[in-house]
Design brief:
The complex is a heterodimer of chains A (114) and B (117). Chain A is built from no helices and eleven strands. Chain A has 114 residues and is an all-beta fold. Chain A is globular. In chain B, strands 2, 5, 6, 10, 11 and 12 form a six-stranded mixed sheet that branches. Chain B has a four-stranded antiparallel sheet with strand order 3-9-8-7, with no helix packed on it. In chain B, strands 1-4 form a two-stranded antiparallel ribbon. By secondary structure, chain B is mostly beta strands. Chain B contains no helices and twelve strands. Classes of the chains: A mainly beta (114), B mainly beta (117). The interface between A and B is medium-sized, with 31 and 24 residues.
Amino acid sequence: DAMVIQNPRYQVTQFGKPVTLSCSQTLNHNVMYWYQQKSSQAPKLLFHYYDKDFNNEADTPDNFQSRRPNTSFCFLDIRSPGLGDAAMYLCATSRDQARGWEQYFGPGTRLTVT
Amino acid sequence: AQSVAQPEDQVNVAEGNPLTVKCTYSVSGNPYLFWYVQYPNRGLQFLLKYITGDNLVKGSYGFEAEFNKSQTSFHLKKPSALVSDSALYFCAVRAPYSGGGADGLTFGKGTHLIIQP
């Protein structure tokens, strides 16, 4: 089945130690998104790629970066994780205007910062 | 800027009774509206969407939602609740496509739906 895959599902990192979260998709969608969801809060958009074009939200900290080497893969890099970055990170994809940009979400990666 | 309000943190319903989870939105132009469900430690699952057309939208698992433009609402409904419907429900909005790229969704804070046996 076509899907959005996130690895790992659970990630523990140390304060200040760089960490990379991975997302892949078999849907061949041209848009990929990263959301941060803290406990009991709504998902918050960090940035998205429209094909190769990177779009950063205005309030996304510089500590968060992203890479999209090809259509299928997208990475979230946290350069120096702080305790406040502990959250669930959700990757999503969407395809086209005709479908109203319906988004398909992966299962998420829960990041713990020690 | 667009926004979504889910006024209830929690909704309790007895199994077999109808349920409603409320959502109101604010966006420029005609909105794209979505409902997602999230189970513990899982990603979001798409339930239904309104883009255009009939104001009553039917989705997965027997859920439906009614778009009301005058009240800027998009309430989620189900005629007969199941215990397995217990989860966290998010309403989301996206502004109409403007040709500038694919902006993400703006989510409400979520409503915990608890179905009591």
